[in-house]
Each structure stands twice: as structure tokens, then as C-alpha cells.
UniProtKB/TrEMBL annotation:
Source organism of this protein record: Clostridioides difficile (Peptoclostridium difficile)
Gene3D superfamilies: 3.30.70.360, Zn peptidases (3.40.630.10)
Name recorded for this polypeptide: Glutamate carboxypeptidase
GO biological process: folic acid catabolic process
Family annotation (InterPro entries): Amidohydrolase (IPR017439), Aminobenzoyl-glu_utiliz_pB (IPR017145), Bact_exopeptidase_dim_dom (IPR036264), Peptidase_M20 (IPR002933), Peptidase_M20/M20A_hydrolases (IPR052030), Peptidase_M20_dimer (IPR011650)
Entry-linked NCBIfam families: amidohydrolases
Length: 461
């Protein structure tokens, strides 16, 4: 039955790929920023309703929803996203050609991410309907991943309660299960209030909020030597005053603090707050801060990731043609080989994978020689409370970064869509394995419990 089920799942996704392509293309052509994804979420809800899913909205989160089909356990979640990035408008082209100057674009491929996950749940739903599988399948429409808050708020509101395990995927430049963590992250804005004065006539009457921001930044730059390995601190001054001849009475700086473990991030954050207080003391200003968002590091569940890996190899890459290879080659030419090799430094040392432009195979040792992926995802919070597995699929050429015009062009291309089909089929086949073996969930939950230990998860926001 297992092989017959998987054959059915893969063939069914092929049958509906025209519908999936239509959804993905429409979302790609109508990019929306975080918490404004009305078009994308409504489009996905309409599709899922048509396929027999019940839809539940989330109070206070207009563009979030959960679609469900089936009954009883296991209850398996597949996570989707659909928010775009500001300033990345781009045609499906091998040269930089914005559709709208300064407009938004899907430079992280979320038009594919959500659509691929929908393909997986619709296919599994058909097997439940045919009584070949038992359980409940849920699609999570998650807004604002780029804001690193959507899934965190959904957890906080209780919408992940009762879930047995979760699967997801993300567009990237390689086809591989993700077996290492991402970075935990705090996003914090520090604000200073001072006293304005004429900068030439009476500067001694002023208390510069901008001076406080600059002193804080200096202190944090000296702190870098004394923080944990793999911690990252980045900042941007978002308000530094209005005119140079006025001592600024208000200034703001926005910090990201990242680390391999949340306890490291909290430690560094505490020290940065002390530096911020010191800057206020030195300048006679008043400091306050606001935690905008925060996410945990991702915990890959080995039991589920092994299953996902097996199914990625079973499914295999999806029939790239000469046009796909040509498109990848031309995009790769827009980035120097040194920069591409640097981006691809996460890859294993087993072979020089950067010699190819389009990753047309599935590998399982790709990330294993590194101890983390240097980015942050809000799926990390999900992985602390539910056994979770995810994979990456080669939507754009090897060595191309996400959040670029090249990745946006790829996300709207035939090449990118074929990578999405690999994800969709692999996740659906993995859900089949979990639903047919009741011991898998128990093993996955035990692994998570052993990994987390006595640590109690609490949302940052």
C-alpha cells in the first residue's frame, strides 16, 4: 500500500500542477508585504475550500488561517507562507529589470513555499478521502515570516495546540533536508529622548539623542569581541534627527541580535541593554526599548527529517530542460564566482558543488559539516513545541542569495516551479509514512522532549 499511495500522491500532484502554477504565478505577480497578504491568503483559501477543506480564520490576524481535512490522529501540519519583500520587484529575466521601481517582489520565493505546501495537503486529503490514510491534515497559512512574527503570534494564540508534527520547506539553492539549526533572533528598537537646542548658538543647553545612539553603537562594536561564537549583531539608525543645526531630541536605532541558541541571544541582549543605559547616562538622555519580534533557533527532528530525506530521494528532481539550465547559467553569470562560492560555503566538502549552476540532484550531507545556518526563521518556534522537519529545494542557482533580484526572478520561473514540485511531492509522501506508522509520532515526540529537556518555551513577543 505504501508504494501505491506514494505513486498516487506524486501522480495527483502532477495532475493539479496547472492549478498550483496558476496560484503561484498570481501570488508572484501580486506581491504583498507582511500582514497585508490579503490577495494571497484569499486565493489560497478559495483553492482549499474547493478541495473540501474547512477554513478557520485567526482573530486579530486577518491574513492568517488554518485549513483542515480529516478526523482523529495523527494531526499533521504543513506550513505555508506568502509574504513578499520590499524593493525586490523583478521580471522573470536574467538581467535586473524591476516591474515597478522600488516595488515589492518575492525574493524569498514564498509564492512557491505556500503553494507547494498546499499541493502536499491536497494530495494527502485525496488519500484520506479514499480511506487509504487515517488522520487529520492541516495547512497553516502563515503571514509575515519576513517580519519573524507570524508563526510566533499563531502559537501564542493557541493555533498550534493539538498538532502531532509539522512539515515545511523553503526555497534555496540546493535540494536537501535541513538537519542543522537556524539562528535565534531578537529584533529590538532602542529610542532616546533628549533636549533640543540650537547646535551653534546654545549647544550646551541640548542633550543629544543622536549622541546616545552613536555611543551605544560604539559600545556594541567593542562588545563583539566578547560574545559567543556564531552570534551576530547588526543595526541601522532609523532616526537621527531632522537638521544638523538642531541638537536632536529624539533618535532611534534598530538592532538584530542572533545566536545559535536562545540563551546566547538573551545573554547578549542583556549586555546590549546595559550599554544602551550607559549611553543614556553619558548623554543625559532617557532610553527605552521595544522588542519588535524574536524567534527561536530551529530544532530539526531527526526522526521526521530522515523520513523527509528518504522521500526526497524517491521523488527526485523534476525534469529540468535546456531552458531551465540556460536560465540558471545566465543568472549565475550575474554574480562573481568568489561571491557564489562564499554563499555556498554551507555546502559539504564532498565535491565542488559550485561547478554546477542548477542543483539537479538530491543530497543529504549538504549542511552537516556546519553547526548552523546563518539566518533566522519563525519555524524555529514551532520546532520547540512540535516535532518538525523541513527541506530546501533549488529554486534559484547555486551560490545565489535569497533576498536578491536573481532569487525573485527564479521564484517566478519554470525552473523555480519544478523545485516546488519536488518539495510538494516529498512532503506528501512523508506524511503518508507518518500516518501509516503510529510509532513515528511517539519517537519524534520523545526525541523533541529529550532535546529540549526541562527548558520551557515562551514566545518572545
Amino acid at each position: 500500500m505504501d508504494n501505491l499511495n506514494k505513486k498516487f500522491l506524486m501522480e495527483y500532484i502532477d495532475e493539479i500542477q496547472g492549478e498550483l502554477r496558476d496560484i503561484s504565478d498570481k501570488i508572484w505577480k501580486n506581491p504583498e508585504l507582511q500582514y497585508k497578504e490579503y490577495y494571497a491568503s484569499n486565493l489560497q483559501k478559495e483553492c482549499l475550500k474547493k478541495h473540501g477543506f474547512s477554513i478557520e480564520g485567526l482573530e486579530g490576524m486577518d491574513t492568517a488561517f488554518v485549513a483542515s481535512y480529516g478526523e482523529g490522529r495523527p494531526v499533521i501540519a504543513v506550513l505555508g507562507e506568502y509574504d513578499a519583500l520590499d524593493g525586490l520587484s523583478q521580471k522573470v529575466s536574467t538581467t535586473k529589470e524591476p516591474i515597478v521601481d522600488g516595488g515589492a517582489g518575492h525574493g524569498c520565493g514564498h509564492n512557491l513555499l505556500g503553494t507547494g505546501s498546499i499541493g502536499a495537503v491536497i494530495a494527502v486529503k485525496e488519500l484520506i478521502k479514499l480511506k487509504k490514510l487515517k488522520g487529520t491534515i492541516k495547512y497553516y497559512g502563515c503571514p509575515a515570516e519576513e517580519d519573524l512574527s507570524g508563526k510566533v503570534l499563531m502559537i501564542k494564540k493557541g493555533f498550534f495546540d493539538g498538532i502531532d508534527c509539522a512539515f515545511s520547506w523553503h526555497p534555496f539553492d540546493i535540494n536537501t533536508p535541513i538537519r542543522i539549526p537556524t539562528l535565534a533572533n531578537y529584533s529590538v528598537k532602542f529610542r532616546y529622548n533628549g533636549i533640543s537646542a540650537h547646535a551653534a548658538q546654545a549647544p550646551y543647553n541640548g542633550r543629544s539623542a543622536l549622541d546616545a545612539v552613536e555611543l551605544m553603537n560604539i559600545g556594541c562594536n567593542y562588545l563583539r569581541e566578547h560574545i559567543f561564537d556564531n552570534c551576530r549583531v547588526h543595526y541601522v539608525t532609523t532616526n537621527g534627527g531632522k537638521m544638523p543645526n538642531i541638537v536632536p531630541d529624539f533618535a532611534e536605532v534598530w538592532y538584530y541580535i542572533r545566536g545559535v541558541k536562545m540563551e546566547h541571544v538573551r545573554d547578549v541582549f542583556g549586555r546590549i541593554v546595559d550599554i544602551a543605559k550607559g549611553a543614556a547616562l553619558m548623554t543625559g538622555t532617557i532610553m527605552e526599548y521595544d522588542i519588535i519580534s524574536g524567534v527561536y533557533d530551529y530544532i530539526p527532528n531527526t526522526i521526521l527529517t530522515d523520513i523527509l530525506s528518504q522521500n526526497m530521494k524517491l521523488v527526485g528532481v523534476q525534469n529540468y530542460n535546456e531552458d531551465d539550465y540556460y536560465f540558471a547559467d545566465k543568472l549565475a553569470e550575474t554574480v562573481s564566482i568568489d561571491k557564489r562560492s562564499s554563499v555556498s560555503s554551507v555546502l559539504s566538502g564532498n565535491k565542488d558543488i559550485t561547478k554546477m549552476n542548477l542543483h539537479d540532484e538530491v543530497t543529504d550531507d549538504t549542511f552537516t559539516h556546519n553547526n548552523c545556518i546563518s539566518l533566522s526563521l519563525d519555524i524555529g518556534d514551532v520546532s520547540y513545541i512540535i516535532p518538525t522537519a523541513q527541506c530546501s529545494c533549488s529554486v534559484w542557482p547555486i551560490g545565489i542569495s535569497a533576498h536578491t533580484w536573481q532569487s525573485c526572478a527564479s521564484a517566478g520561473s519554470d525552473m523555480g516551479f519544478k523545485a516546488m514540485l519536488l518539495a510538494s511531492k516529498s512532503i506528501s509522501c512523508s506524511i503518508n509514512d507518518v500516518m501509516l506508522d503510529e510509532l513515528v509520532i511517539n519517537k519524534a515526540k520523545k526525541e523533541l522532549k529529550d532535546t529540549v529537556g526541562s527548558f520551557e518555551y515562551t514566545p518572545i513577543i
